[in-house]
Amino acid sequence: MRVVDPVCCAAGNDLRSSRRWGFREARTIRLNAVLTGIFAGYLFIYLCHMPEYHFGDFIAIWAYAKVLFTHPVGDLYDNAVLHAAEVGFGMDPAGEAPFPYAPTVLLMLWPLGLLSLVAAYGAWIVVTLALYICSIFTKGHAALAMATFALVAPTTTINIVVGQSGFLLAALLIGGLRLMDRRPILSGILFGLLTYKPQFGILVPIALMAAGQWRCIAAACVTTATLIVASVAVFGGTIWLTWLRAFPAYAAWFDDRIIGQSGRSTLTANLQSLGVAQEPARLIQAIAVGLAAVLVWFCFRRLPRALAIPALLVATCLATPHAFLYDLPMVTGAALLFVAYRLRSDMPFSLPEIGVLILVLIFPAIMAQSTTHVPISTVVLSLFEMLILSTGERQRTISTSAPLEMTALQVGI
After folding, report:
1. How far, in Å, are 76, 246, 247, 255, 279 from residue 252 at the CA level?
2. Can you tell me the distance from the alpha carbon of 118 to that of 9, in angstroms, rounded to the nearest whole number?
3. ∠309-161-281 over CA atoms, to 5°?
4. What does the pLDDT read at residue 202?
């Protein structure tokens, strides 16, 4: 029989304890307070300088809506006419903001054209941010802390400054995923609305099929079809042909003007900043899509839903070929949902895990502050994905070994 030294055992337990951070420990509370303070300061600095940004990209979004009231709708897809209209509405003449979206987006944007720029911006940010917070809200004593983190996170600051649709994107995707089991029809409606940015829904059908959510799939298809029919009824039968003809020109413009810019968070952008040519980078991106699809199928078949959802959110950001930093509130949401799951499961964090989560929260700010592209998004997101998967495997191991441990205790071993 092996004799265990109680002193050595106690020392080992103390060492392991020092490497594990529980949620209610004083050091964890201090770390949360420090991070919240830093993020709040980051937000405050940018809010103080908001007039310098002239509403960011939102002035173009507002101009799209205004054009619906002042021009034929097809002019949205004529870059020269659209640019002249945007400048007339106050956009910097040096700026460029083509309209690449499918006509269904216009059904959501047109109310903004009824408001002034300031009122439309305020309504856009307040409403979409509220929807985003609701989508990630979890019950429990940590709910207030989670909501506070979401409000002051760097991705929130970036989206407020730019005035883009990252909050709406996160709300539709996260809300749809979290409702798929309890309210599949509503979930499908949210996924149907998500088609305004289809590159962020490429993995959703994989998840729904893996989960057997056929009612949700049907609701998403019906919602998408309804939006298409409504857009034709409101804007005319030729609007879709106009969009299809104009889209190749937008793709060429994007490849010419945007590829070398900072602020893109995709694998393709990271590779190109490291000197990889465009075609090999796109091939690697296509391979990443395939790997992400396999990963999502596995997660929605084998992992708890509360882990599969953040895994899909991260995999989407790794798979999509077209994304910017303002699209990443969904990543912050994934991090907060992951932390909430660990809290409910009473699973403390190790120091490396804490480091990964901090990187997930701050890397958008690092990339946003750089004048050149910093290719770190793929690395950080990959580390976060591995953290989610390892947590799932640990939970599966605990679940399968628990009955065996109980049997051993019952027989006195």
Report:
1. 17, 10, 9, 5, 14
2. 64
3. 55
4. 94
Q: CA quadruple 62, 66, 68, 74: dihedral positive or negative?
A: negative
The residue written with tokens 């007039």 in the block is 51
Our CA dihedral for 64, 70, 72, 75, rounded to 10 degrees, sits at -40
**Residues 4-61: tens digit of each pLDDT:** 444 444 444 443 555 677 777 888 888 888 999 999 999 999 988 887 778 888 999 9
Could you give phi then psi for residue 350, rounded to 5 degrees? -90, 165
pLDDT digits (tens, 9 = 90+) for 155-187: 999 999 999 999 999 999 999 999 999 999 999
The model's pTM: 0.89
* Stretch 353-371: mean pLDDT: 91
CA-angle at 38, arms to 34 and 151, nearest 5°: 100
Domain coordinates in residue numbering, the chain? 56-407
Q: Confidence class of residue 407 from pLDDT cuts 50, 70 and 90?
A: very low
- From its phi and psi, is residue 163 left (phi > 0), alpha (psi between -120 and 50) or beta? left
CB atoms within 10 A of CB 270: 21
pLDDT for res 287: 95
Helix, strand or coil for residue 20? strand
Give the residue carrying structure tokens 């882990």.
307
- For residue 263 the two structure tokens come to 């602020």
